[in-house]
């Protein structure tokens, strides 16, 4: 038990120690070698910028981008699950759509951003749609894998109790596929962030992507790095979220 | 005197088709079981025993032939009211790991739409019978194998079926637990007058439990013999030591013509 406690402590301390070492090392290197300000910002400058502009610029833009990502994500996940259910439950429907789902999944949907902007203009809506398009495909693909790989023995059990289609979904197919669903949520979290930022790059005056572009235009490297840090924070949060929910939902030993 | 047939398997043939070869799992198999009878199927691995009861349960359809239960004949689709009369016990418990003991037990009731005090009492009775009352809120993956198997058996009984189809239910258990459950099973069947088709690898188990034993061979799966077990009922474990018991065992083993099955315990 003592060994385990030591290991857990190490899990926490080691990455933080590494970060501190890297930041201190970078700071030292940048300062001593007099690296120009327009090329890279020192960690201390980035932190200064984060603190000074936090409430005025950084947090508002962060909130906007986070809002775009979350809204799109919360639409994409149920949509992906639902479409996966339809594709796997209705055989002909699934067969008809099979080649197209592959096309949709393998195309980076951010290429549609210019078109979407023509249709939907600038603003919140176009970002959300881009996030939904990019994310739901990944959720759908993971769910389909899960729904198509159910233990046949459990389906035999359903047959013996005369289970209806919906009972099969409720008692076997969905619970059995929960790991796949959560995996889809993790994977799509990554592309949700990318889709939102990419759309902002193309056409936006607000949000973290916009902030990165504008600060690069003004060579405000500190702000640019600060934005990049915030994007990373968004990505990490969104990625961890499904794992936290998974631990709460899956209380049984698999 | 014609006694009423509860179950009759009518010239069932089952061929599994695959790209490489066709496998004739069953060839022209016919069986009949009267109401209240306990019938075992014994034979080497792959002789189609599991296939037969899966066809009776309508998990898979026969290639040829049909099944008749209580006068109703079916091939591809079993009528719901007949399905309701069947209880199936799987070889490997086949419990749902994302549900607790009680939830697993209640599942057939939910699916068959059976509600009310009568069924709640049934659940309580079966929980206590299988000694799982204290484990009712435990997830099934946390149970021991013996407990899981007992749960599998009582789950098949929860909707009070008239017929039990059991696919080597006690195969994974140790000899002592197996003996105990064998006697408990006989007890339930006597009291509730159930009709049972029981698959086992153990010749001794089949002699202990059954009124009749069908002996099957493999490749293709066919019935090669039928042995009537004349031991008195109710049966008890000490009957296993009798000469009569051994004679029945030898009769069955003889019919199989293969001493590898003599798991005389």
Describe this structure in words.
The complex is a heterodimer of chains A (254) and B (265). Chain A is mainly alpha-helical. Helix content of chain A is 83%, strand content 0%. Chain A has two domains: 1-35; 42-249, MetI-like (MetI-like fold). Chain A has helices spanning 2-32, 43-52, 54-89, 91-106, 113-120, 124-147, 152-160, 165-202, 208-217, 221-249. Chain B is an alpha/beta fold and 265 residues long. Chain B folds into two domains: 1-85 and 162-171 and 192-239, Rossmann fold; 87-161, no CATH class. Helices cover 34% and strands 26% of the residues of chain B. In chain B, a hairpin with a 4-residue loop joins strand 9 and strand 10. In chain B, helix 7 (203-209) crosses helix 8. The N and C termini of chain B lie far apart (38 Å). In chain B, 42% of the residues are buried. Mean pLDDT of chain B is 90; it is low at 259-265. Chain A binds chain B through residues 153-154, 156-164, 167, 171-172, 175-176, 178, 250-254, and chain B through 54, 57-59, 80, 83-84, 86, 88, 90, 92, 94, 96-99, 107-108, 110-112, 139, 141-142, 159.
């Amino acid at each position: 038990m003592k060994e385990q406690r030591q290991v857990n402590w190490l899990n926490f301390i080691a990455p933080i120690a590494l970060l501190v070492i890297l930041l201190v090392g970078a700071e030292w290197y940048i300062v001593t070698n007099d690296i120009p300000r327009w090329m890279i910002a020192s960690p201390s400058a980035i932190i200064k910028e984060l603190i000074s502009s936090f409430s005025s610029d950084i947090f508002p833009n962060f909130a906007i981008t986070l809002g775009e990502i979350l809204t799109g994500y919360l639409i994409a996940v149920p949509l992906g699950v639902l479409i996966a259910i339809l594709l796997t439950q209705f055989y002909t429907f699934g067969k008809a759509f099979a080649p197209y789902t592959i096309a949709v999944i393998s195309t980076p949907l951010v290429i549609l951003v210019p078109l979407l902007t023509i249709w939907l203009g600038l603003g919140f809506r176009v970002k959300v749609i881009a996030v939904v398009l990019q994310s739901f495909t990944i959720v759908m693909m993971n769910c389909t894998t899960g729904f198509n790989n159910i233990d046949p023995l459990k389906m035999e059990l359903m047959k013996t109790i005369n289970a209806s289609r919906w009972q099969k979904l409720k008692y076997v197919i969905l619970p059995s596929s929960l790991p796949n669903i959560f995996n889809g949520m993790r994977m799509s979290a990554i592309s949700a962030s990318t889709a939102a930022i990419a759309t902002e790059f193309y056409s936006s005056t607000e949000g973290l992507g916009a902030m990165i572009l504008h600060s690069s235009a003004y060579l405000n490297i500190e702000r640019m790095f600060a934005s990049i840090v915030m994007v990373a924070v968004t990505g990490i949060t969104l990625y961890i979220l499904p794992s936290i929910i998974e631990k709460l939902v899956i209380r049984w030993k698999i | 005197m014609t006694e009423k047939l509860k179950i009759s398997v009518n010239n069932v043939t089952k061929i599994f088709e695959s790209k490489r070869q066709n496998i004739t799992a069953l060839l022209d198999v016919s069986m009949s079981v009267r109401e209240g009878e306990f019938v075992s199927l014994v034979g080497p691995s792959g002789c189609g025993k599991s296939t037969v009861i899966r066809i009776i349960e309508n998990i898979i359809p026969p290639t040829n032939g049909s099944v008749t239960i209580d006068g109703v004949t079916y091939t591809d689709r079993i009528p719901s009211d007949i399905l309701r009369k069947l209880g199936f016990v799987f070889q490997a418990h086949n419990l749902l790991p994302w549900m607790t003991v009680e939830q697993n037990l209640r599942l057939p009731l939910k699916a068959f739409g059976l509600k009310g005090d009568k069924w709640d009492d049934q659940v309580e009775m079966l929980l206590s019978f299988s000694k799982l009352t204290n484990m009712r809120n435990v997830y099934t993956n946390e149970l021991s194998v013996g407990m899981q198997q007992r749960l599998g058996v009582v789950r098949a009984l929860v909707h009070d079926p008239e017929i039990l189809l059991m696919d080597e239910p006690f195969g994974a258990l140790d000899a002592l637990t197996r003996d105990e459950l064998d006697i408990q099973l006989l007890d339930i069947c006597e009291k509730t007058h159930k009709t049972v088709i029981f698959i086992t690898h153990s010749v001794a188990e089949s002699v202990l439990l059954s009124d009749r034993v069908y002996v099957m061979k493999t490749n293709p799966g066919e019935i090669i013999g039928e042995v009537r077990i004349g031991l008195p009922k109710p049966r008890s474990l000490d009957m296993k030591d009798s000469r009569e018991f051994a004679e029945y065992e030898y009769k069955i083993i003889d019919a199989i013509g293969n001493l590898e099955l003599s798991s005389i315990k």
